[in-house]
Design a protein that fits this description.
The structure holds 2 protein chains of 2 kinds.
Chain A (H helix, E strand, L loop, with lengths): L9 E8 L2 E8 L3 H11 L15 E7 L3 H9 L3 E3 L2 H20 L4 E9 L5 E6 L6 H8 L4 E4 L2 E4 L5 E2 L5 E4 L6 E4 L14 E10 L8 E5 L1 H9 L2 E2 L7 H11 L3 E6 L6 H8 L5
Parallel strand pairs in A: 2-3, 3-4, 6-12, 12-15
Antiparallel strand pairs in A: 1-2, 5-6, 5-7, 5-8, 5-14, 8-9, 10-11, 13-15
Chain B lengths: L2 E7 L2 E6 L2 E5 L1 H9 L8 H12 L7 H14 L8
Antiparallel strand pairs in B: 1-2, 2-3
The chains are: A alpha/beta, B alpha+beta.
């Protein structure tokens, strides 16, 4: 097909995603509207220092009512859609994926939500597969604990835990589409201290679980085997299992948290953050 | 050996092989760690190592037991066996 006229207008939003500088470039006649929506949803990831000299990753986005234009943009690797809602829905995994790719081989990247004690920065990384309720848990615990992420918790070799307070994906009024909601709009607590890994938790939610949540230590090798399935790009790390073992040992091992309803978990998680289970 | 990494904890181990992590029993761990990486090992040498570590069971052959473990490790791709 003939190449459509390139959408000319462009607005940029500079984000800090898992410590990676990432610039969202909105193109086309709706560039301003798109950039404004990205800016609002990703407000907690907007970089305070957009021109700090670091190389940036770029994600190009476009909303256009003409499907031909959208196909043209998608063929160039842009995130493109005919509506803003679809674009925002697709943008979140795209941004996460780009940042994770960038950190492959550097950080242990858990499929996890993470929340920290606002006064100390002590952070629980709570690991679980999709459907385990990480976003719901983030909304519930994030009213009292600081929201670090509901998606990916990345830990560097020196133990540094990277912030990723992305918008939360919440089923809304658009059918299958999840709305991308800024954590601030949900009343979540914003971290003011650098998060410090204090606990690694394996989430085990079940409607059959006892009403009272329970915490149990997980033997090291069993924890490694379970966690390995929830870590991105584990294989390409140097000595991945030894690194994971070292991380677990540094926080007193992993715990399995069995629960029915996340609303009951705040006291339990706070105990873990104080190290009272070890 | 297509093993990306190995962690030993007590008498057990976790091995990252292909795309998954497998937790090995004490005897499997002992067999695996007795093998010399990138060189062929004689099964009888492995049997001696295992006998020294675990003793001789009253009614079973250590040789057969070690061979069974090696076969199991071979099915996960951790070791290669030639007869």
């Amino acid at each position: 097909m003939d190449r459509p006229t390139k959408p000319a207008l462009r607005h940029e939003i500079s984000l800090e995603v898992l410590g990676v500088r990432l610039v969202v470039r909105a193109h086309g006649s709706q560039a301003y509207v798109v950039a404004d929506a990205v800016d609002r949803a990703w407000a907690w990831c907007v970089s305070g220092h957009p021109e700090d000299g670091r190389d940036a990753l770029y994600v190009d986005v476009l909303v256009d009512a003409e499907e031909e234009i959208v196909r043209w943009a998608a063929a160039r690797g842009w995130v493109a859609a005919t509506s803003l809602e679809v674009l925002l829905h697709n943008l979140s995994p795209s941004i996460t994926g780009r940042a994770i790719e960038q950190l492959a081989g550097q950080a242990l990247m858990f499929h996890a939500c993470a929340l920290s004690e606002p006064a100390t920065g002590a952070t629980a990384v709570m690991v679980g597969p999709s459907g385990m309720g990480k976003t719901t848990l983030s909304r519930q615990l994030g009213q009292a604990l600081a929201y670090v992420t509901d998606e990916t918790a990345a830990v560097d070799a020196d133990g540094t835990l990277r912030l990723f307070p992305k918008p939360l994906s919440i089923l809304g009024s658009h059918g299958f589409l999840k709305e991308q909601v800024c954590p601030g709009d949900l009343g979540l607590v914003r971290p003011t201290l650098a998060p410090r890994l204090a606990a690694v938790v394996l989430l085990d939610r079940s409607p059959c679980a006892p009403a009272t949540p329970s915490v149990a230590p997980v033997p090291l090798l069993s924890a490694i085997a379970t966690l390995a399935e929830q870590i991105s790009y584990l294989k390409i790390l140097d000595q991945p299992l030894q690194r994971l073992a070292g991380l677990l040992q540094s926080v007193g091992g992993a715990y399995r948290l069995s629960y029915r309803d996340g609303a009951d978990l705040l006291p339990v998680v706070r105990q873990l953050l104080r190290g009272e289970q070890s | 050996m297509p093993c990306h990494d190995l962690v030993v904890d007590g008498d057990q181990s976790a091995v990252y092989v292909e795309d998954s992590v497998v937790v090995l029993s004490p005897i499997s761990t002992a067999v695996l760690t007795s093998l010399v990486v990138d060189e062929w090992s004689d099964v009888h040498d492995v049997v001696c190592t295992i006998e020294a570590a675990f003793g001789t069971p009253p009614e079973e052959s250590v040789f057969d037991g070690v061979c069974a473990v090696i076969d199991e490790l071979a099915t996960t791709g951790l070791v290669e066996r030639v007869d």
